[in-house]
Design brief:
By secondary structure, this protein is an all-alpha fold. The chain is built from two helices and no strands. The longest helix is centred in the middle third of the chain and has 58 residues. It is rod-shaped. The protein starts with 8 loop residues before the first helix and ends in a 12-residue tail after the last helix.
Length: 118
């Protein structure tokens, strides 16, 4: 069993960009869906018996659809945010390790008193 830590920052960057594009499309789609579904609210009518019977159900279904779509869009955006946070963590870890390697090979340690020799 290996304790190796491995990540591909370029792949994470590419993935993050793709997820950001998907997130943007999802937000555009839900905005368009909300506009379109809102325009259907008058379909059952307004004041006849059919309308009085159907409007509460129609409203509930319309609002439920909007909420489901919004939740899906938020989930997609959250995946992008999480991936971006992961990318920042990977790059921070990678840069810290590279700095430590550079410091140890040049003798630039915290104590500075041994010039890299122990």
């Amino acid at each position: 069993m290996s304790n190796a830590y491995s990540a591909s920052p370029p792949a994470l960057v590419a993935g993050t960009r793709q997820i950001e594009q998907i997130s943007q499309l999802a937000n555009e789609m839900i905005s368009e869906f909300i506009t379109d579904v809102s325009s259907t609210s008058g379909w059952p009518g307004y004041d006849d018996d059919f309308a009085k019977q159907m409007r509460p159900q129609e409203k509930q279904q319309r609002e439920g659809s909007v909420q489901t779509g919004s939740s899906l869009s938020e989930a997609i955006v959250s995946i992008g945010d999480g991936t971006l946070t992961n990318l920042k963590s990977v790059l921070g870890t990678q840069n810290g390790v590279l700095d430590a390697i550079h410091d140890s090979s040049t003798g630039d340690t915290d104590s500075g008193s041994h010039n890299g020799k122990h």
